[in-house]
Specification:
This protein has 16 helices and 21 strands. By secondary structure, it is an alpha+beta fold. Strands 14, 15, 16, 17, 18, 19, 20 and 21 form an eight-stranded antiparallel β-sheet that branches. Strands 7-8-12-10-11 form a five-stranded antiparallel β-sheet. Strands 3-4-6-5 form a four-stranded mixed β-sheet. The two termini are about 30 Å apart. The chain binds flavin-adenine dinucleotide.
């Protein structure tokens, strides 16, 4: 679908001048024509539809945030997501800043069967938070976190980033599980799972959700908790964005000291096999208050490929040496940066990876045992390359995550000791195909030693595979989906869908 189809009106200029709230398709849109009263868009079934400009104007009037069309100065930055591989052009972007805005945007889309993408932090690897020709409901301006220290609850607006949650909670000496890169969205991370540096102590981010306000496909605002709409509450905790737009999360918080012990220990890539085996054995002995990731990283130019462990110990200070001692004693590292750190600082220590331009492709899976066969497949097939950064990443699970029954929430993968993914990234202008091919081939060798995958780290899996990944929870999820979103308005996610 080309640009002409989305915004073909010169007089977008006229329209924009007449309706200052309706800033898209303005004087910068060279292909516009005076006569057009509608713009081309795409329905959720993929058919071409027209959106009346008068209706878009009305939508714009009903929102406190702007509606952006192609040509608006903010359109390009708003439509972009973290993974530059997904360079898409929505027909319109509803930049919602309130619950009421979300109700109006969802109603508009639902009445027209419009394709909908919901953008929280925009970190979807698979590009599910943007679309060609539909409506992007952009929550990036709908951010805010309020902490009630007495009830130890955080109230988190739907578009908030992890940094905001960590900052506000820790200001009160409290914490809840968030991911490891602080510009990730609370929304996508929590609805799909939420692994992070205190997850082995306090469970996944979704295990800490005590309620949500959610706008479902019929445009209704609902509260879902253990006492109200309890099936929906069960489903949103692991069912991703399938059931609607979450405008607010209620999350339980836990007292925690601000200072933790954290950092990285780095070895040359030649030690990969030994470090992975150490990681596997030592990982079986660690307490819940130690979080331990492993990364194997080959930057471009084939230089300085490394393997590293990343630790965050948030337990009692007098046990530090006993708990972390084995890491310090293992092998001959190039560097060891483990030291006392501020928790909020370690939470943003990986943040310089937000290019919003680089392309990325990944494959992921869970494993309950880092077997010798898995180590061999990962090490043997790992290829540094001059044009790309290649990574393997183990994120640890277990602890409190594993003590939740598989059917207590929609997240079924409680058996896993680790989530493992392989990812390749490349600079703009570089041909993506060989790099995507490399990961697919590599993963073919690794996948047999994994079981299921993290829905938040999905690339382009077939619908049957996505359904199967919900495991024993699929049928219940399907019933909830058919109750709250019978037309599958919210389909750009790890979609719950009946297959033939
Ligand atoms: P978006 O792209 O905005 O959304 C992703 C999906 O969630 C979309 O389907 C979207 O429609 C839906 N969605 C988002 N917000 C809402 C909402 N309010 N209501 C309804 N649906 C919504 N995961 C971990 O568990 N732990 C990590 O440490 C971790 N680190 C990461 C680091 C990076 C750099 C990246 C790119 C990803 C990381 N992830 C991690 C994966 C992450 O959980 C997913 O990418 C997640 O989907 C990001 O959420 P988002 O809101 O930023 O994404």
């Amino acid at each position: 679908m080309d640009r002409r189809q989305f915004c073909r009106t010169t007089v977008a200029a006229g329209v924009a001048a007449a309706y200052p709230f309706f800033p898209g398709c303005d004087r910068n849109t060279p292909t516009a024509t005076q006569a057009d009263t509608s713009i081309a868009a795409v329905s959720f079934t993929g058919s071409e539809i027209e959106l009346e400009r008068a209706a878009i104007k009305e939508l714009g009037e009903s929102l406190s945030g702007p509606v952006l069309l192609s040509g608006h100065p903010s359109y390009d930055s708003a439509r972009k997501i973290w993974n530059g591989m997904h360079d898409k052009r929505p027909a319109l972007i509803a930049q919602c800043t309130s619950t009421d805005d979300v109700v109006n945007a969802v109603t508009f889309a639902s009445e027209r069967s419009l394709l909908v993408a919901v953008k929280g932090g925009g970190h979807s690897f698979s590009g599910k938070s943007t679309c060609d020709g539909g409506m992007q409901i952009d929550l990036s301006k709908f951010r805010g976190v309020r902490v009630d220290p007495r009830s130890r609850t955080a109230y988190v607006d739907g578009g908030s980033l992890l940094a905001e949650l960590d900052h506000e909670a820790m200001a009160q000496g409290l914490v809840t599980t968030a991911g490891t890169v602080s510009h990730t969205g609370v929304g996508g991370l929590t609805l799909g799972g939420g692994f992070g540096r205190v997850a082995r102590r306090f469970g996944l981010a979704l295990d800490n959700v005590t309620g949500v306000d959610i706008v479902t496909a019929d445009g209704q605002l609902r509260h879902a908790s253990a006492d109200e709409n309890s099936e929906l509450y069960w489903g949103v905790r692991g069912g991703g964005g399938n059931f609607g737009v979450v405008t607010s999360f209620e999350m339980s918080l836990h007292p925690m000291q601000r200072q933790i012990i954290g950092g990285d220990v780095i070895w040359p890539l030649s030690a990969a096999r030994d470090v992975m085996r150490f990681y596997s054995d030592y990982g079986k002995t660690i307490p819940d208050d130690l979080y331990l990731d492993l990364a194997m990283i080959a930057p471009p130019q084939n230089s300085d490929a490394i393997i590293m462990l990343h630790a965050c110990y948030s337990g009692p200070a007098d046990r530090t040496d006993k708990v972390l001692g084995p890491i310090g004693e293992f092998g001959k590292p190039i560097a060891n940066t483990i030291k006392p750190m501020d928790y909020v600082a370690i939470q943003s220590s990986w943040d310089d990876t937000d290019p919003r331009n680089d392309g990325e492709y990944l494959k992921s899976g869970f494993t309950s045992e880092i077997t010798d066969e898995l180590v061999d497949a990962l090490v043997d097939g790992f290829e540094p390359h001059p044009d790309r950064t290649t990574q393997v990443f183990f994120q640890c699970s277990g602890g409190a995550i594993a003590r939740v029954p598989a059917d207590a929430t929609a997240f079924a993968h409680r058996y896993a000791s680790h989530s493992v993914f392989t990812v390749v990234s490349w600079k703009p202008g570089v041909d993506r195909d060989p790099h995507v091919r490399y990961i697919r081939n590599y993963w073919n060798e690794v996948e047999p030693y994994t079981r299921g995958f993290y829905t938040n780290e999905v690339a382009d899996e077939a619908q049957t595979v996505v359904n199967a990944n919900y495991q024993g929870n699929f049928d219940r999820l399907l019933r909830i989906k058919e109750q709250y979103d019978p037309t599958n308005l919210f389909r750009l996610n790890a979609n719950i869908r009946r297959t033939a």
